[in-house]
Amino acid sequence: MSTPNSTPTKKTKNNKNLLSFLTEPIEWVRMLSSQLNPTFIIGVFLIYGLGQGFSGSFFKVVSDYYWKDVQKVQPSTVQLYVGFYFIPWVLKPLWGILTDSFPVWGYRRRPYFVAAGVLGTVSAALVALEGKLAAGAALLCFLGVSASLAIADVAIDACIARNSIEVRSLAPDLQSLCGFCSGSGALVGYLASGFFVHHLGPQGSLGLMALSPALTIVLGFVIYENRTSGLHSEKKQTASESVRMTIRSMRQRMMYPQVWKPSLYMFLALALNVTTHEGHFYWYTDPKAGPAFSQEFVGVIYGIGAVASIIGVVIYHKALKDYAFRNLVFYGQLLYAISGVLDLFFILRWNLIIGIPDYFFVVIEETATRITGKIRWMPMMVLSTQLCPLGIEGTFFALLMCIDSIGALLSRWGGGVLLRLLHVTTTDFTNLWLAVLIRDMLRFAVLSLVFLIPKADQYEGLLPPEISENNMTVHVDEETLELVPINANTQD
After folding, report:
1. Cβ distance 205 to 193 under 8 Å?
2. Which of 146, 197, 368, 379 could be joined to 85 by an S-S link, Cβ 3.0–4.6 Å?
3. What SUPFAM superfamilies does UniProt report for this protein, alphabetically (predicted)?
């Protein structure tokens, strides 16, 4: 009698599990919106999802084809050019100080969103519509696109840092949200890039780069922000004093071992991870030495990598956010270094010896690298937010991200120098395997620096009481973005 009823019960349970799986992300976003603020969540979706995710990935693929097919530049030179894209990100503390200390018409965020959007829109339009620009002019336009993303990113990062300090239990969730948004946007950008490069060419495709900054302009007009009273000479003086005090306060806080040690690790972990991406890209598309992947499939490769990044975020969010910082960073870096060996197998064509086709092996390689890369870096982003003192959290987080950007800049330039020293060109890939081997050895070497990471859990406060709160005399009365629910009870 019970047997016939068991099948419908199983189906009902499976349907409930499937429904729960599909609705869980929606409920999670609702929870974050209720505890923080919907405007903040929308800002994260726009800046991280559409900006850094879609635009960043689309720009990566299209600009590679632009330098290769339109400008006809050597891979080592392109690797150096890519390093210049990071200069606006190195200047993030400057953008942070500007947005925090110098309101425009009483607004601290809106004008900078608008300015960033205009800069990105004009830069993308110029390189797409002006015919074949000189290499220097094209590089300046690409710098404009990168600066647009960096300036818009600063405002959102300030809110993320403050929320992570005030609601420590949500710090890993906020980094997971950023990872989901950027990963999803990157997936769309990578998949679309190959299609548009094939049909519009690399230069015509760059016109789509104007989409994200155009919406950033709209965000600047619609995002919630309280307008401060008009500025006069005393307030201007206060702003300049605030800049000096902020710089002095940041310098003092960087002297604490709890701050400079993990900051040093993040810098070295990025700087020593020399990238040989441009050599890989030229080899991917070479019909003689490489596998001769098509434009569409190159986009698919990176799209698969974006999916793998999302999987890495899910693994971290579901299983790893309760582990201590040092243990998680060590094992994440170890897995990341091991996954890099797959690149060496691919360049040496050992995958064909064991019978694995290029199209299948590159999927394995890209997936392993992206998943382990996310697992090793997610706790570092949570750690960065926990190092920020209240009051100057926006500028201080920008400083930490600036240190990371300098490390990433050296990574790009170091890879470019390595490719040039080993004479890797558009037609000669003889020593590309050696460049990859050196890169992998440096990834393993980073494991010796993990002692710089604290042993604390990810929910613990890392700063001692004397620096955990901002003791600056300048106090900002209003937040430019609402960081608590509008109808929240503010009483104790």
Report:
1. yes
2. 146
3. MFS general substrate transporter (SSF103473)
**What is the secondary structure of 300-325 as a DSSP string?**
HHHHHHHHHHHHHHHHIIIIITTS-H
Over residues 399-428, the pLDDT tens digits come to 887 888 888 888 888 888 898 899 888 888
Closest by CA to 348, choosing from 277, 432, 412, 269, is: 432
Going through 18-84 in order, the beta strands assigned E by DSSP cover none
The rounded distance, in Å, linking the Cα atoms of 35 and 47 is 20
Report how far apart, in Å, the C-alpha atoms of 209 and of each of 32, 122, 268, 294 are.
30, 10, 32, 22
CA distances from 155 to 149, 309, 401 (A): 11, 24, 13
Radius of gyration of the chain measured on its C-alpha atoms: 23
Query: Please, what sign has the CA dihedral across residues 219, 223, 225, 227?
Result: positive
The token pair that represents 362 in the structure block? 């590159």
Q: Which residues, in sequence order, are CB contacts of 96 under 8 Å at separation 6+? A: 154, 158, 394, 395, 397, 398, 399
3-state secondary structure of 107: strand
454 contacts 328 by C-beta, under 8 angstroms? no
In tens, the pLDDT along 211-226 reads 888 888 887 777 766 6
Report the percent of the chain where pLDDT is more than 90. 10
d(CA 66, CA 54) in angstroms, rounded, equals 18
pTM of the model: 0.66
